[in-house]
Design brief:
Blueprint: H1 9-32, E1 38-42, E2 75-81, H2 82-85, H3 93-117, E3 145-151, E4 156-163, E5 170-172, E6 196-197, H4 203-206, E7 212-213, E8 219-224, E9 230-242, E10 245-259, E11 267-270, H5 278-281, E12 289-293, E13 304-308, E14 318-325, E15 328-334, E16 336-341, E17 344-345, E18 364-366, E19 373-376, H6 377-390, E20 396-397, E21 406-408, E22 414-418, E23 420-424, E24 427-431, E25 437-439, E26 445-448, E27 450-453, E28 458-460, H7 462-465, E29 469-473, E30 478-482
Length: about 475
């Protein structure tokens, strides 16, 4: 005997069995946990610059001679990305992408500022501050998508920015006291038989937040922005022609002094929810429904499109209710309750992070003019970390611009990446891999296409919307997402 107590054999076996069972029990969550779900990403490069020549870009169809019926009429238009319409001289795929990210940063800052302004007393704001019902996407980063439509009678076809983050419709008009350079001739209201100035006493004039009045008792509009950009001119009504469909009496700003804005388009078609937006004005004509489908420009030569009317609503769309910001009627707010990576809800991402409160703080909007989705910082960090863990088999690469999660995929044609699903109220939107892992150069570098923001406002951008038909059903107060909606 060495003087040390030894347990009986039966006790020793019991301890051994207990430890073994404990080990097995502790390993059960790992061995039986649901494996991560992956999908295949086919690797593509950044799209090469394409020049869409202005005169030959689209034919200018003659309007139908017979009068348009008063019943609901669907219409569709083709959308073009700004990089294809007016690429800078000697552009490369990399330089265009960096330019896109710079535009994006400007726009996100402006949208966040507009949302923040709603917290203050609107009536106490100076006239040169933001106007909630007239917000130009041009001052928010120049707009990403354009279409060609006719202005006036006879119709003069011009390129217009389409923007869900803006309300007012406006164009540059002659005589120009000061106008930026545009590709098409500046619209001359004197040559249109359907142009009509709005009187100062008109209810239409009073819809403006800061209306003015000239010596002829005609309504004036003036919109100024925090960066010094502004547009000033006569508020009027005019006929717009979408291919062969005419829409009469659309209220628009006829801008005679437009400064600090960008080169190219003639103006802007506001598609927001406000009282002066095109969908609100023409709502009865198109059943208060419209949709768009934005293609992945690096993987498809098919143009993007927009549809107004009943045919805008896809049968396979999943819908989530629109939320209302009591202080700002322009943006399309949605309820985001969580995000899944690899088939599992990301811990730390809850509905409370995206809550739109009673005074207009926070919330999530869907926006056509923002490229990269911005999530409030705590949500983004949780999403990023979950994706990094799921993509640990991919070779990491240095950060790129606003992206802090990048990978070196050079030499590969495809990779497996964890799935990403956005959970809206009543609608789970499963993103294609190309909507969240995107090329940032021509050398195989790909980055996770989300970013964090210190602003309370989260924005679902157009990269994440690619390939979906995004349906704005204002009649039923909802937004829908239809996968493969561009077909």
């Amino acid at each position: 005997m060495d003087g040390k107590w030894k347990p009986p054999i039966s006790i020793s076996i019991s301890i051994s069995i207990f430890l073994s069972l404990t080990t097995i029990f502790l390993s059960i969550p790992l061995s039986l946990s649901t494996p991560l779900q992956y999908q295949t990403l086919l690797l593509t490069s950044l799209p090469n610059p394409q020049t869409l020549s202005w005169p030959e870009a689209l034919p200018e169809p003659e309007p139908e001679p017979e009068p348009e019926p008063e019943t609901t009429t669907p219409l569709s238009v083709t959308l073009h990305h700004v990089d294809n319409l007016s690429p800078p001289l000697n552009s490369t795929p990399e330089s265009l992408f960096r330019l896109r990210l710079r535009r994006d940063a400007v726009r996100v800052k402006a949208l966040s500022t507009i949302a923040a302004v709603t917290q203050s007393n609107v009536s106490a704001r100076p006239r040169t501050d933001f106007s909630s019902s007239i917000i130009s996407g041009l001052a928010q980063g120049s707009g990403e998508y354009f279409t060609r439509l006719g202005i006036g009678t006879p119709a003069k076809y011009v390129y217009m920015v389409l923007d869900t983050g803006s309300d007012v419709v406006w164009i540059q008009c002659s005589p120009c006291r000061k106008c930026y350079t545009q590709a098409d001739p500046v619209f001359d209201p004197k040559r249109s038989t359907s142009f009509l100035g709005v009187s100062c006493a008109s209810p239409l004039c009073r819809r403006l937040d800061s209306p003015g009045c000239n010596n002829h008792r005609k309504c004036l509009y003036q919109v100024s922005y925090g960066d010094g950009s502004f547009t000033v001119g006569e508020f009027s009504t005019e006929t717009l022609t979408f291919r062969r469909t005419k829409v009469d009496n659309v209220a628009l700003g006829c801008g005679h002094d437009n400064e600090g804005l960008f080169v190219g388009a003639a103006g802007l078609l506001g598609l927001g929810r406000g009282k002066l937006s095109f969908p609100t004005q023409a709502g009865n004509r198109f059943g208060r429904k419209f949709s768009y489908c934005l293609v992945d420009r690096s993987a498809s030569s098919k143009p993007s499109s927009m549809v107004f009317g009943e045919s805008a609503v896809s049968k396979n769309a999943v819908f989530t209710p629109l939320l209302t910001n009591p202080k700002l009627d322009t943006f399309y707010y949605l309820g985001l309750s969580g995000i899944s990576v690899g088939g599992t809800r990301v811990p730390g991402i809850s509905e409370s992070l995206f809550k739109l409160d009673a005074v207009g703080n926070g919330g999530v909007i869907v926006d056509s003019g923002t490229s990269v989705t911005r999530l409030t910082r705590p949500a983004y960090v949780a999403l990023r970390d979950a994706f990094r863990a799921g993509a640990s088999n991919l070779k990491r690469a240095p950060d790129f611009s606003l992206f802090d999660t990048c990978f070196d995929l050079s030499g590969k044609t495809e990779v497996k990446v964890p799935t990403v699903v956005l959970h809206f109220g009543g609608a789970d939107v499963s993103l294609p891999a190309s909507n969240y892992l995107i090329p940032v150069d021509s050398n195989g570098k790909f980055c996770f296409a989300f970013a964090g923001t210190m602003s309370g406002l989260s924005i679902i951008g157009n990269i994440q919307q690619q390939g979906f038909r995004v349906v704005f059903d204002l009649a039923s107060n909802r937004v829908g997402f239809a996968p493969r909606g561009c077909a």
